[in-house]
Write a structure and sequence with these properties.
2 copies of one chain form a homodimer. By secondary structure, chain A is of the alpha/beta class. Chain A folds into 2 domains: 4-69, Ribosomal Protein L25, Chain P; 77-229, Alpha/beta knot (3-Layer(aba) Sandwich). The first copy, chain A, contains 7 helices and 12 strands. In chain A, strands 1, 2, 3, 4, 5 and 6 form a 6-stranded mixed sheet that branches. A 6-stranded parallel sheet of chain A has the order 9-8-7-11-10-12. In chain A, helix 2 crosses helix 3 (119-136) and helix 2 (88-99) packs parallel to helix 7 (218-229). The longest helix of chain A has 18 residues, at 119-136. Chain A is elongated, with a radius of gyration of 20 Å. Chain A starts with a strand and ends in a 10-residue tail after the last helix. The mean pLDDT of chain A is 92. Chains A and B meet through helix 2 and helix 7 of A and helix 2 and helix 7 of B.
């Protein structure tokens, strides 16, 4: 795969423009000239071969070839709802969840959470997603949802598919080893969910599942859940 | 769990001595006094409640209570053989593999590897294992084996249990979904194994398994393999 760049603005017909850091990288690091070939993706599951047509100070004009669609990956559409860890661990979390094909990340607001899902933090996560997509060849962005609670994260996920990482639960595989369309795994802060939060989770139909024998850090639990869910089968086609 | 410290030297009877950084932490950060209670582990699967009996410049004398054995974890004994990633990614790799219960890490010598498994690097990995054990409550150290090849890493692992991460393979779960005592997953460098290395792996009975839909970084693949293998069942007891 040649170097791939992210189109923040969707193409218009067969024309597109790279902006910001992406444009500066093409101009200054890659030192591209008009006529140079590269690949671009818009985060919705498509990529295009592209030819540089113009080089401006902060934008690169492109002529696009035919779009190529990324095949849907196997298995359920996975949402990971997680109390954000601190600092560099956030960047790791997003990089790994992107590589592992997670569909949606919901930053959880919890009583014992140590990192606020501020707009600036969410912006950083989104930039991390784009970088990871470029690295791992993924064309559909991991969606960083608005921060929420366990209940709001579970909206749209069937009751039997709402899981919560807890060392006291059974293996995730045993709880989710049949084909399904969507799956949610929630990971609490290092201090754990409070009794009130656990009661709310139980009321919302979350089942406890174990992801390993030891005390897992937040990002380890989330990455383990993504890894395991990535091995689950797809539902059989209807009809 | 109270703060746990690592005994680099095995106890003699009910007496033990903490040394080096562990001793300095107890003395200077924890500001422990004689009579203070803490927990120690020696990396072989046991921990002890302990009482401080003496505080020296670089060592802490301890009187130990009865040892407590960590129960064996479920599932196969997992070896991960991996071409080491660079820099901070090594520390992450070891931290996560320790948390996830991997038994043994073999640094792989490969043609396209970017980080040499030097004695200094292996020492750093071992220190990382101890720190991760303290963090996650694990009492048996992840073994950092001598650097080797795919063939040497596979010694003692039955042929059907030698797996190699490759996007072209089937899901790891499908290849290893029956109970087994031991399992080996090999992860190559970012540039991949060479044709010669792949041929040698095939000759040594390695089967290719997929860990996810996209191009995984080394440490992501290793962590994913550990997460998935951690969900596998234990063999039924003999007899």
């Amino acid at each position: 795969m040649s170097k791939r760049y992210f189109l923040a603005t969707p193409p218009v017909g067969s024309r597109a423009v790279l902006e910001g850091d992406e444009a500066r990288h093409v101009a200054r690091v890659m030192r591209a000239k008009p006529g140079e070939n590269l690949e671009v993706f818009d985060g919705t599951g498509r990529w295009w071969p592209a030819t540089v047509t113009g080089i401006g100070r902060n934008e690169i004009g492109l002529e696009l070839g035919d779009p190529v669609s990324e095949p849907d990956r196997d298995g359920p559409r996975l949402t990971v709802a997680v109390a954000l860890p601190k600092g560099d661990r956030q960047r790791w979390l997003v990089e790994k969840l992107t590589e592992l094909g997670v569909s949606r990340l919901v930053p959880l607001r919890t009583s014992r959470g140590v990192a606020e899902p501020t707009p600036a933090a969410v912006d950083r996560l989104r930039r991390g997603v784009v970088e990871a997509c470029k690295q791992c060849g993924r064309c559909r962005l991991l969606e960083i949802a608005a921060a929420g609670t366990l209940e709001s994260a579970a909206a749209g996920i069937p009751t039997g598919r709402r899981l919560l990482a807890d060392r006291g639960g059974g293996p995730l595989l045993a709880a989710a080893n049949s084909a399904c369309d969507s799956l949610l795994v929630a990971v609490g802060p290092e201090g754990g969910f409070t009794a009130e939060e656990m009661a709310a989770a139980e009321a919302a139909g979350f089942a406890r599942v174990s992801l390993g024998p030891h005390i897992l850090r937040i990002e380890t639990a989330a990455i383990a859940a993504a890894s395991i869910a990535g091995q689950l089968p797809s539902p059989a086609p209807a009809g």
